[in-house]
Write a structure and sequence with these properties.
single chain
Length: about 80
């Protein structure tokens, strides 16, 4: 893997190395990545029926049946 760093990022890594807290740039990057919060899996998108069937709408006796739209006669 190749990573391109900005000059600002390189300066930050060098500052951490100069502090003596880290021995290599890899340690700095690893610690930075390890300190990030865990990635949350993407939630499945709900359709309108799912939303209206769950709280706070659940039990509200909504009629979710689809109304058929019958075609109208058109004189040509």
């Amino acid at each position: 893997m190749t990573i391109h760093l900005t000059p600002e990022d390189e300066k930050l890594i060098q500052e951490k190395l100069n502090s003596g807290a880290f021995q290599t740039p890899e340690e700095v990057i690893h610690m930075a990545l390890a300190s990030l919060p865990p990635v949350q899996p993407k939630k499945k998108r709900k359709n309108l029926v799912d939303v209206l069937s769950s709280p706070p709408f659940a039990g509200s006796e909504l009629d979710l049946e689809r109304i058929r739209d019958y075609p109208r006669h058109v004189d040509l």
